[in-house]
Amino acid sequence: MLLNAVDAALARDMAHAMIDGFNRHYRLFRTESARAKHRFETCDWRGQQRAQRERIEFYDLRVRECQRRLEREFKAGDQPMAVWQQAKLNYIGLLVQHKQPELAETFFNSVTTKILHRSYFHNDFIFVRPAISTEYLETDDPGAKPTFRSFYPSIDALHATMAEVLKSYDLRCRFDDIERDAQRVADALRSELGTDRQRPNFQVQVLSNLFYRNKGAYLVGKLINGFREVPFALPLLHRDPGVVYVDAALFGEEDMLLLFSFSRAYFMVDMEIPSGYVQFLRSLMPRKPRAEIYNALGLAKQGKNLFYRDLLWHLRHSTDAFRIAPGIKGMVMLVFDLPSFPYVFKVIKDWFPPPKDTTREQVRAKYQLVKRHDRVGRMADTMEFSLLAFPRSRFDDALIAELEQHAASQLEVSDRDGDGQTEVILGHAYIERRMVPLNLYLQEAFDAGPDDAAANAQLEHVVIEYGNAIKDLVAANIFPGDMLWKNFGVTRHGKVVFYDYDEIEYLTDCNFRQVPAPRNEEDEMSGEVWYSVAKNDVFPETFGPFLLGNPRVREAFMRHHADLLEPGFWQSTKERIQRGEVLDFFPYGAHRRFEFNGGVKGAGELVDPAAAQAETPADRADTSTPTTAEPSE
C-alpha cells in the first residue's frame, strides 16, 4: 500500500527515532561494560557488583524512553498499520550497515509491542525472523579492535607468545610475574595437546577484550593445531591491589560451559559487534544455545528473543505434549515441561495453602531479586514472559485441568487471533533450564540399594554438592528459606543448583538462634514449640529432621556439612558480610589452579576433586585481603 507524502515522512521519522533510541541504549550499555576494566584495575569490587546489577535495568529504561518519544512526537499508537509497516521497512534500511542489527531488531520489537499492545509476537509489524544477516560482520574503523586476534607461535616458543597475548590487553596494573604465568599457560597448553605434532595451521586466537565478572577478568580464546581446536580461558586475579596473576587454565567445552553457566552472573565485556563474540564463543561451546550466550554477555532481551524463536521452531518440528513436570508439586508454582525441550515453564498459582504466607507480587519480587543478585553458580537464571501462546493440541488434558484449578487467572484457551487454531495463552510465566530434581536424583540412589558402589558415590557427591550450594548461597547473602531437597536440581555437570525462590531472604535480614533449653519436663515432651519465634528467626538445629531422615544421607551430610545445623556457622557468615567482606567463589575446580599443581593435565591425581568440592567459601577466600575470584554480593 502506497502512503501519501505526509505518512511516508512520518514513517521515516518514526524509524529514525527508533534507531536513535536503540543507539543510545547500546552506547550506554557498552560504556558501562567498558568501565569494568577500570574497576578491575582499581579493585573496585563493590562498584563492579553495583554496575552488574544496574546494567540489567538499562534496556527497559531505554525502551520506555523511546516509547514515550514516539507517542509524544508522532502519536504512534494512533497511526494506521500501513504507517507501521513502512516504518519497519525504513528501519531495516537503517540496519544495513549497522554493527548490532540483531539487537536493534529486538529493540524495535520491544518498543512496538508496548505501543501497539500486541498479544502475539508473530505479526507484520515486528521482526519474527532476522531481516539483516550478522555473518562476517566486522568493524570498518581502522583504529578499532577486531573481534578476535590471531597469534602464530611455534610450539616450542609458546611461552613467548602467551606473554605477548597477556600484555596485549593493556591492563593498568602490573603482573606479579608475567614470565612465570606465560610459562605455566604454555606448559598447560602443550599438556592439552599431548603427543600431537605441530601442524601447518598452528595459531592462538583470542577475543580482543577481557570478560569481567566480580573480582575476575577472563581471557578467552582457542589454540588451533591443524584440524584440532582447544578452547581455553585464563582467569586473571589480583594477588595484591594492582598486582595481577593468571590463576588457572581452563580447557575444553565442559570448562567453558561452567564458566558461562546459566547459574552465574552476567559478564561485562566491551563489544562493538556482539554477534562476532557470540559466533566465536559458539565455536568453543557448540552445544550451548546462542540465546544463553547472549544472556551470559548481559544481552538478556536478545537472549529471550532467540529463545522464543528456538521454542517456536522446536514446536514446529516436534509432536510431544506439554505435561505436568515430574517431581513433588510445589505450593506456589505450577511447573510443566515438554519432554523433548530442555526447559521448564513455571506459573504462579492463584492461591497458596498454609503455611505459605505470600502474594503473587512478593513472589515476582523474589524472582527479580535473583535476576539482579550474583547467582554464584547456585541459582538458576530465569526468563520472564507475558502472553505466551501455544497450540492447544500440544497440551496434555491433565495439565489443562491443573492450570484451570490452580492458575485460572493466568489461563486463556481461545482462538484470540482468529486463525482457526485454538491456543493456550498464559498471562505470565517463568522459563528456566530443566534439571533433575534433587529428591528424584537421590531416590535413584536409594532404589539401587546400599550395596551399589556407583549409587553410593552418586549419593555422596550430591549430598556434598547440596551442602556446598547452601554455603555458597549463604556467603552470597542469600538464605534459601525452604531447603528441602525438592527445591534443588542437579545439572548435567553434577552441580546442585537452587531454583525455588519464593522464600528466599537476605541472610543479613535473618536472626539465627539456638533452640532454648526446655524449661521443664512438660516442655521436653511437648510436640509444640515452647519458645517465642519472631518473623525472621531461624533455628538451624531444626533442619535435621526435615532433611536427614534417610540414614545414608544423614551419615554423608554429617561428615561434610554438620556445621549447617549449628547457629554459629550462620551467625559468623552474617557478621562477615555485615563487616563489608566480599567473599569469593570460583567457577572452576581447585585442581585447575596453578598454585595447586601447575595447571597440568592429570591434576586430579594431585588434588582430590572431592576435597576441592568440599571447600567452603570461607576456606576458599582470603578474608584478610579480598583479592581472589568471583565474590558474592
From TrEMBL:
Transmembrane segments: none
Span list, region Disordered: 610-633
Keyword Kinase attached: yes
Record domain Isocitrate dehydrogenase kinase/phosphatase (AceK) kinase: where: 320-588
GO MF annotation list: [isocitrate dehydrogenase (NADP+)] kinase activity; hydrolase activity
Enzyme Commission number, as recorded: 2.7.11.5, 3.1.3.-
InterPro entries: AceK_kinase (IPR046855), AceK_regulatory (IPR046854), Isocitrate_DH_AceK (IPR010452)
Domain (Isocitrate dehydrogenase kinase/phosphatase (AceK) regulatory): residue spans on this chain: 15-318
Tree of life domain: Bacteria
Reaction(s) catalysed (UniProt annotation): L-seryl-[isocitrate dehydrogenase] + ATP = O-phospho-L-seryl-[isocitrate dehydrogenase] + ADP + H(+)
Keywords annotated in UniProt: ATP-binding, Cytoplasm, Glyoxylate bypass, Hydrolase, Kinase, Nucleotide-binding, Protein phosphatase, Serine/threonine-protein kinase, Transferase, Tricarboxylic acid cycle
Pfam families: AceK_kinase, AceK_regulatory
Active site, per annotation: 381
Extent of Polar residues compositional bias: 623-633
Protein family (similarity comment): Belongs to the AceK family.
Function summary: Bifunctional enzyme which can phosphorylate or dephosphorylate isocitrate dehydrogenase (IDH) on a specific serine residue. This is a regulatory mechanism which enables bacteria to bypass the Krebs cycle via the glyoxylate shunt in response to the source of carbon. When bacteria are grown on glucose, IDH is fully active and unphosphorylated, but when grown on acetate or ethanol, the activity of IDH declines drastically concomitant with its phosphorylation.
Record's protein name: Isocitrate dehydrogenase kinase/phosphatase
